[in-house]
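Please fill in the sequence for the structure shown.

STRUCTURE ENCODING:
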């Protein structure tokens, strides 16, 4: 292997008249602006498509002669000037955040994620987690949040998918050429590469950083592929979710510790660090180390302050989804690091385990994140219930609905996922401001002004384009498999651009049940082969390389579509990515989702059809459990959960067939004289009006700001001002609570309650509480009362604060309160005591609770 003595990068010479094209190319703003996308397509459509919509590669390949031609093309120049004027206005006008909260000189919020789905030309994403992270950044940019993001720059990214002749998934990995992507290396002031260094296994690990501009937001991507790192360390950022547990811990050390160290090196001191899943949770240790180094705080003090300014989002619905690392791995990678923190391995391991865990249990990244954050959130309301059940062991005796998990339902970045045709239609009838006010329900009421024929025909055109894409992709797939010419020529006849088109595209995880539709082969064949009311299915998605069960599902679908008469009605598109997704969500009539409830934490794929006029048919899981009503789509089942998976599959597959036969197909094919399915179009409009303003990342990011970022920021300010005076006092209080809580007792409960109480009659309740070494200011005493079920357990307790009215001997205090029962039936009263401090992030940040 011959290596050069000098290496350098060659860039195209952009003529001065079109120099603005370079600035546009290096900001992913163009990826959610159709006018900008069309500008690059205009340069050379073939190269634009071949480059997977990569403007930097396009400009490098198109040739200097073509660039000079463009300077003389007045139509192109006018187009360029318009796009750049819009870009300049976007980057320099006051934003929603500025108007509401003022201007910030530096980023206040740092968002860490293992993957980011920004555009298909930058393959550093695998699925929903990454797409959500990318949409989060785009809405943060649109709204003007002072946010910075950190991720990893994978040399190969996630795998490319193709199927062998038997339908078995195969994986291949393409190399990301960073020098021909819309990212730029971060340099020092003298022009040299900025390098971040951390210690790993007793050796220095050097990291360079790439900058991707996402509108107003900077996304920094860490890269370990440097010759001085040696082959084993160079490959840390080689593959997304590649390798074994040891590779995973290395990647998460680079993301968390290396990522936060980079921000510190750049002088960025965020008030809030947002961990999108537990992958980046090691940043908590680096924040503590950094704070200890610039102050005289000890570990516990620094940890208390830093934890108060971390936020954690979990996307997982089963404990098996959490990253686990063995004690041996943790000792191997952190023995040296924790010496700087002044703690032993036992203390570190305890932070990544459950309260009652044994010494041999692995280190759990989700537990570590939760133990080092002030606020944690789920990604839907139902997922909040699931998460509380998963972590209830960490909050003993705390009512389930009070376990501090904030539900913030996911959304989509509407401007990324809406098709140009539909965006133009909305602009015509909702006004140009709909793109800036996408979370305003009043704006979407304008959908009623769209004439039914115009809405229907706009959607029908997108279905036609989807069918055209499918045929083109299928032809390429068949050519790569070396099939006969006859079979390839038949690919141009698959699907009917006028038929009811159902899409199913997502990660092929077992619980998503892609095979549910094929539970009764004869019945689904009858549905699909009905010549009067044709139905067609488009499938796409990848199985994890190690998941043979999911690969078998793909193979079964491929074998089904080869059955006589099915080839024209069922298609599987290989190598699902953001590009394919855009066509599918823009062109399908129905988006099908069949997860096994309650395992879908949120699911965002179905949200992407909303602004395009598509309708959803889904199990009531994740976001659809909040969104569904009979005017906007269809529900498979009524939200039941089953002890037997076989029974659940049988019941829900029959329910799905019934929906297709009795509701979906008749509604689609019942037409007025002008060929418009009136009821269907009414549902399209209701879906857009009711759901588009809700299931958007504009609304989601505003919720993060108001429920997570700003309260966390305010708390961090109070803890760090005056040389951490508040933080020292709060940390001391936390230590006191940890040591002395066992002394707290409810000594006596007094009430004049009778066996039968009048409704709405005020009932006085008193309690004597023994404080021990604590004071009344350290505690909150409350009545917990409400209706009891048949087992004598509270259904939903009402919480009423009690006031201290008298101090007594022996550290006892008398508290009084009043409860009114607003419902008839059997009621109960409980008394509870919890810690209280004005700087606590909320109830049960410290999971102590004492009941009478």
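FILLED IN BY: designer on duty
SEQUENCE:
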């Amino acid at each position: 292997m011959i290596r050069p003595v000098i290496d350098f990068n060659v860039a195209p010479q952009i003529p001065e008249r079109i120099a603005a094209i370079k600035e546009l190319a290096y900001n992913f703003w163009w990826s959610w602006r159709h006018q900008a996308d069309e500008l690059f397509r205009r340069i050379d459509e073939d190269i634009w498509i071949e480059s997977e919509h990569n403007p930097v590669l396009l400009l490098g390949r198109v040739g200097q002669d073509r660039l000079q031609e463009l300077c003389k093309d007045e139509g192109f120049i006018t187009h360029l000037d318009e796009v750049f004027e819009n870009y300049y206005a976007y980057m320099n006008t006051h934003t929603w955040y500025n108007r509401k909260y003022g201007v910030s000189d530096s980023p206040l919020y740092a968002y860490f994620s293992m993957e980011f789905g920004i555009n298909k030309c930058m393959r550093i994403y695998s699925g929903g987690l990454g797409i959500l992270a990318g949409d989060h950044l785009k809405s943060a940019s649109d709204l003007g949040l002072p946010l910075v993001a950190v991720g990893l720059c994978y040399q190969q990214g996630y795998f490319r998918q193709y199927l062998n002749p038997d339908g078995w998934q195969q994986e291949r990995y393409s190399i990301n050429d960073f020098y021909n992507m819309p990212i730029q290396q971060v340099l020092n002031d003298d022009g040299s590469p900025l390098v971040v260094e951390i210690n790993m296994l007793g050796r220095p690990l050097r990291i360079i950083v790439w900058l991707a501009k996402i509108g107003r937001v900077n996304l920094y991507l860490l890269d370990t592929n440097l010759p001085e790192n040696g082959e084993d360390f160079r490959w840390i950022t080689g593959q997304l979710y590649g390798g074994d547990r040891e590779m995973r811990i290395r990647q998460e050390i680079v993301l968390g510790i290396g990522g936060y160290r980079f921000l510190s090196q750049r002088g960025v001191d965020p008030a809030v660090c947002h961990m999108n899943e537990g992958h980046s949770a090691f940043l908590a240790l680096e924040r503590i180390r950094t704070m200890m180094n610039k102050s005289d705080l000890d570990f516990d003090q620094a940890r208390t302050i830093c934890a108060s300014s971390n936020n954690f989002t979990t996307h997982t619905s089963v404990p098996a989804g959490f990253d686990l690392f063995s004690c041996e791995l943790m000792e191997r990678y952190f023995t040296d690091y924790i010496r700087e923190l002044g703690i032993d391995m036992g203390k570190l391991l305890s932070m990544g385990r459950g309260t009652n865990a044994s010494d041999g249990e692995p280190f759990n990244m989700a537990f570590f994140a939760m133990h080092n954050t002030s606020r944690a959130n789920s990604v839907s309301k139902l997922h909040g219930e699931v998460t509380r059940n998963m972590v209830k062991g960490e909050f003993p005796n705390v009512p389930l609905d009070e376990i501090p998990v904030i539900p913030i339902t996911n959304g989509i970045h509407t401007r990324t996922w809406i098709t140009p045709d539909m965006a133009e239609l909305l602009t015509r009838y909702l006004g140009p401001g709909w793109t800036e006010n996408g979370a305003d329900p009043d704006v979407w009421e304008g959908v009623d002004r769209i004439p039914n024929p115009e809405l229907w025909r706009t959607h029908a055109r997108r279905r036609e384009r989807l069918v055209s894409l499918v045929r083109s992709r299928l032809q390429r797939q068949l050519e790569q498999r070396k099939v006969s010419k006859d079979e390839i020529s038949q690919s141009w006849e698959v699907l009917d651009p006028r038929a009811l088109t159902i899409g199913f595209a997502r990660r092929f995880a077992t619980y998503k049940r892609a095979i549910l539709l094929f539970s009764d082969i004869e019945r689904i064949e009858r549905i699909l082969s009905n010549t009067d009311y044709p139905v067609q299915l488009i499938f796409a998605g990848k199985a994890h390389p190690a998941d043979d069960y999911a690969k078998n599902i793909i193979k079964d679908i491929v074998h089904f579509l080869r059955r006589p008469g099915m080839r024209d009605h069922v298609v599987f598109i290989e190598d699902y990515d953001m590009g394919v997704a855009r066509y599918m969500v823009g062109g399908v009539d129905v988006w099908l989702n069949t997860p096994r409830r309650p395992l879908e934490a949120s699911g965002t794929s179905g949200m992407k059809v909303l602004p395009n006029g598509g309708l959803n048919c889904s199990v009531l899981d994740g976001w659809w459990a909040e969104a569904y009503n009979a005017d906007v789509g269809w529900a498979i089942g009524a939200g039941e959960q089953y002890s037997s998976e076989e029974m659940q599959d049988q019941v829900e597959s029959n329910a799905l067939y019934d929906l297709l036969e009795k509701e979906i197909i008749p509604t689609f094919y019942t037409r007025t004289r002008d060929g418009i399915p009136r009821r269907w179009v009414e549902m399209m409009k209701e879906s857009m009006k009711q759901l588009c303003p809700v299931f958007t990342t504009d609304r989601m990011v505003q919720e993060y700001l108001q429920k997570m970022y700003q309260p966390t920021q305010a708390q961090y300010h109070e803890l760090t001002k005056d040389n951490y005076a508040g933080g020292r006092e709060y940390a001391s209080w936390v230590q006191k609570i940890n040591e002395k809580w066992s002394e707290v007792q409810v000594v006596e409960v007094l009430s004049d309650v009778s066996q039968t109480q009048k409704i709405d009659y005020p009932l006085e309740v008193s309690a004597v509480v023994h404080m021990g070494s604590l004071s009344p200011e350290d505690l909150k005493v409350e009545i917990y009362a409400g209706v009891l079920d048949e087992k004598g357990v509270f259904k939903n307790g009402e919480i009423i604060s009690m006031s201290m009215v008298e101090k007594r001997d022996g550290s006892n205090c008398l508290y009084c309160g009043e409860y009114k029962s607003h419902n008839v039936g059997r009621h109960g009263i409980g008394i509870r005591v919890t810690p209280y401090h004005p700087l606590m992030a909320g109830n049960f940040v410290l999971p102590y609770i004492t009941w009478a």
